[in-house]
Amino acid sequence: MLLVSSKLADEKVIVDDSSPESTARIRVVFDKGKLVSVEPSSTIVFAGGG
Amino acid sequence: MLKPIVGRRLLLAAACLVLLFATIGQAADRKDRLTDKEKRAIDYLVHDWDEDYSATSVDLAMYAVGVKQSDETRFHIGSYIKQHPELHEVTRRWSWVTFVLTADEKRIARALINAQRDAKPAPSIAEIAKAVGASDDRVKRALSMLAHYEIIKADPSVGGAGFRVESRYLKWEPRLDFLFHTVTLAGGRKFNTN
Questions:
Q1: With an 8 Å Cβ cutoff, is B184 touching chain A?
Q2: Per-10-residue mean pLDDT for chain B, 194 residues long?
Q3: B179 — contact with chain A (CB < 8 Å)?
Q4: What's the whole-model pTM score?
Q5: Which residue in B107, B179, B185 is closest to A11 by CB distance?
Q6: Closest CA to B74 of B39, B47, B104, B101
Q7: A14–B131: do the CB atoms touch at under 8 Å?
Q8: What residues are paired with B184 via a beta bridge?
């Protein structure tokens, strides 16, 4: 999230991911630092943090 | 009459041993020797890891430098990284496992780890395939790769897919060595970050 909102703040960014406890695929799309879409829809995205 | 025969047998055994060690030595040398394409992938990674957020893996480096994807080549490059922790600080910080496995292989490893750690039955290939959203063939290839790296070991007694996770990979909370975030930019660049 820090990367998306700083160094990549002017870019469209796709993040393919998975939570450390899980085996499911997660895809999050950002455009210019803003969250555009998340798959699957049950994904909980925590924005912010230190 | 007995002594010369024993002597010849000893000589033959010694010659065989010399030949055996020479063969193992040659194999070890080959394992440590990279082709030009493999060197390009390593050079790409070392440069990429200099970025303060990069934890890019071998498969993405092969893609970036135009090396044809193959498990064999990826294992060869990955083994080199495992054997050369001096390559870059980032491989020592995150463990070589982070860089040599694909995202699918990490998720497949987690499927086995989660079951074994929670004392549940070992998942079958079909169950793993369903859990990670990959084909049976992809799961079989991933299990083979994990076994080559001695992360899992064939053990038919556990049932399911027939692999047991090595104990050292069950204890690492929260399994940071199987972490990944794969980033794709609009321009086509792909990298991993942790």
A1: yes
A2: 53 49 45 88 97 92 96 97 96 92 94 92 97 95 97 96 93 68 93 90
A3: yes
A4: 0.82
A5: B185
A6: B101
A7: no
A8: A14, B190
